[in-house]
Amino acid sequence: MANRRKFLKTTALATAGVAFQSFISKSEEVVVEINSGKVNKPIVLSTWRFGIEANEAAWIVLKNKGRALDAVEAGVKIPEGDPTERSVGYGGRPDRDGRVTLDACIMDELSNIGSVACLEHIKHPISVARAVMEKTPHVMLAGEGALQFALQQGFKKENLLVEESEKEWKEWLKTNEYNPKANIENHDTIGMIALDANGDLSGACTTSGMAFKMNGRVGDSPIIGAGLYVDNEIGAATATGHGEEVIRISGCHLVVELMRQGKSPQKACEEAVMRIVKLTQKRGKNLKDIQVGFIALNKKGEYGSYCVQGGFNYAVHDAKGNKLIDANYFLK
Ligand code: SD4
């Protein structure tokens, strides 16, 4: 770690002359390199390891000067369509009744929003959310109504429950205990936020939610302001982890508002996580059982992340390449 710190400080000094600066977060783990002279764009961030492949798809749009909105939709469709990713889209783990129910939302630079909750049988809920945004007078459709709308729009009805997920569910039924653990079995929501070459922000978030949840349970991921928020004047944020905790503090809206007050994306994520930490303690709950991670990006292309406990990582793709970063965290 010492070497890394030294390297970062050296980098900061060496590059100061060309208007680059490095910021080292509290535990020296997260490094946000920003270009303070000009906007670092285009850039895309997404949650978890599979964000690397998702970013690649988004980058194709961004590097061709496409819209951030198109980039984030293309990006999150990668894990959505991958049956081996067990908590997003096709292949996602089912609820306690064995049903795969999906949550997703999308938001563009004009604050157009679209969302679906508890949607079944459709492989790409993010595209249904976009259709809600673009083709209806509403912003959110849930359950059967969302499915009917998707079918009317030409989306194909499919079985999303893959053999592996079904096996796990049958195994789970033996104990029938709902006890979501931090970073285990529940941790793969993809949230993606991007700043395009035009300087516009958009975001997308999609998930199968907490494994073995109650049927009808909706998490933070389809809720604008909780699992995702974009303000084209300020920045964007998205969340992963226990949705109930994110909703409790209107998490991503809070992160964006903190950036509006002048906080860096890193500091904004830290403060939002601290809000969760305090409320958890106040409510007499055990913080060890909770994981929430935020990622944030501002209009200058600066970014940051913070989470309750270790284990969360996120992928960042800009002109310098695509990399996975371990997020800094509160519980050491
Ligand atoms: C939810 N936030 O449904 C989602 C799950 C998740 O990492 O992100 N897990 O609560």
From TrEMBL:
PROSITE patterns: TAT (PS51318). The active site is at T189 (nucleophile). It comes from Flavobacterium lacus. The record marks D188, T189 as: Cleavage. Substrate binds at R217, V218, G219, D220, T240, G241, H242, G243. GO terms for molecular function: hydrolase activity, acting on carbon-nitrogen (but not peptide) bonds, in linear amides. Signal peptide: none annotated. This is N4-(Beta-N-acetylglucosaminyl)-L-asparaginase. NCBIfam families: TAT_signal_seq. One of its GO terms (cellular component) is cytoplasm. Pfam families: Asparaginase_2 (PF01112).
